[in-house]
Design goal:
The protein is of the alpha+beta class. The protein has six helices and twelve strands. Helix content is about 25%, strand content about 35%.
Length: about 260
């Protein structure tokens, strides 16, 4: 076994100082990153540069505002491949310096999941993540899909309105949904809701299918997530061609770190 060398450093830095590291993280993830927009919100996160003998090898991000107010929470962590022999030591030092008390990451982020399961207790899933894997040709008798109007979505900007959809059956609104782009492009987060009188007729899956089509036509990649207890929505997403690909996991940092 090779000897481990290099003094570990963990220092708070600005978001600009880790932008290229974040790009490397996104590139390796190659999927929707659900917390991607959080560091861009002024005052919401503190970024840390990880070093070995003074040379940068990665970064971490800790959220402490919004839902994480009063509970500093690791939401991003990345170490470049040539330095992963020191991965566990870097993670332990990062937790000590950042004083994070929780970790909230995706299970399909392998490096972050290692940190979570190595240092946390009370680990639980907050959502199931889905990626698109199948083309479907679903139809519902009498159903048509159109873009929502400004009257129906008065708070939406013109760009947001472009991604709001409505399914009608016999001139009645059967369901609504849309695509959000507040995560890392080109990934778009699909959401939907079906009105009470039109449920159990395949409207939700048809709506998701058509929103997927909108995404691809505009050069985007559809993605989705769902509460772990919402079995109906999980089935709807799978019927429309989505497949589970991970979890949003949260855990509390153990007292020993």
């Amino acid at each position: 076994m090779a000897a481990e060398h290099g003094a570990i450093g963990v220092a708070p830095v600005s978001l600009d100082e880790v932008r290229l590291w974040r790009d490397m993280h996104r590139l390796e993830m190659a999927c929707q990153v659900t917390k991607d927009s959080v560091p861009g919100r002024p005052g919401w996160t503190q970024e840390y540069l990880l070093t070995l003998d003074g040379a940068p090898v990665g970064y971490g991000s800790v959220a402490s505002a919004g839902p994480w107010q009063g509970e500093p929470t690791v939401i991003e962590i990345y170490v470049a491949p040539p330095h992963r022999q020191r991965l566990l030591d870097l993670y332990a030092a990062f937790l000590r310096v950042s004083a994070a008390v929780k970790v909230e990451v995706q299970s399909n982020d392998t490096l972050a999941a290692i940190l979570l399961h190595r240092h946390c207790v009370e680990v639980a899933s907050e959502a199931i993540l889905f990626h698109d894997r199948f083309v479907t040709a679903l139809s519902v008798a009498g159903a048509t899909m159109r873009q929502a109007t400004a009257e129906e979505e008065p708070e939406a900007t013109p760009e947001q309105l472009r991604w709001r959809g409505v399914v009608e059956i016999d001139d009645q609104v059967a369901g609504t949904g849309g695509v959000l782009f507040h995560y890392n492009r080109p990934y778009g987060d699909i959401y939907m809701a079906v009105n009470e009188g039109f449920r159990r007729r395949g409207v939700g899956s048809f709506l998701v299918q058509e929103l997927k089509r909108w995404c691809y036509q505009a050069g985007h990649i559809p993605a989705a997530r769902c509460n772990v207890d919402n079995l109906a929505s999980q089935r709807t997403l799978q019927k429309a061609g989505f497949v589970p690909c991970g979890h949003v996991l949260v855990g509390r940092v153990a007292a020993s770190g």
